[in-house]
Structure formats: C-alpha cells, structure tokens
Amino acid sequence: MSKNILFAFTLATISLASCGGGWSEEQKNELRNRCIGNGSYDCDCYVESIVKAHEDPETYNALSKDKKDKLVESCALSEDAEASSDENLESF
Q1: Alpha-carbon span 60 to 62, nearest angstrom
Q2: Which residues pair with 76 in a beta bridge?
Q3: Terminus of the chain with fewer CB atoms < 10 Å: N or C?
Q4: What is the mean pLDDT of the chain?
Q5: According to the model, what pLDDT value does residue 78 have?
Q6: At 76, phi and psi to the nearest 5?
C-alpha cells in the first residue's frame, strides 16, 4: 500500500513540475547571451521585454523574425552608445 502512495505522490510531483511552464533561468541566460553577441541592444531590457510579452519560450519561438525584432526595438542602443561602449573596451 505504501508503494502505491509513494508512486502516486511521485507522479503528482512530476506532473505539477512539468506544467510549470514559464522561462527558466537557463533560458533567460540564453536570451541574454544571444543579445550580448548581437551587441546592439540593452540586454536587460531585451530579456525583460521578451519574458513579459510571452509567458513561455514556445510562444516566443513560434514568432516570425520580424515580430521578434519589433518586440525588442525599444531596447535598441543608439549608434553613439555602441561607439562609446566599443571605445571603453580594453585589449589584451
């Protein structure tokens, strides 16, 4: 009897965990890294805009490139900001 209860509890826990949806920290970090690689956005704004607009990565991934770009256009850095950040980089 106790094995059945343990099995039911385990099954319920797994079911609830898989229904959580949303963005994991790993997925947010992946977005941030993509943004950093692009170099033309405020990356905190970029990630926040995407996460607020879409409750899970699947709905975001289903968007066209144009819709994804439009979603973060308010996070674009000006050309002056990009140039000044490039000037502040140290070379080794």
Answers
A1: 5
A2: 41
A3: C
A4: 78
A5: 83
A6: -65, 140
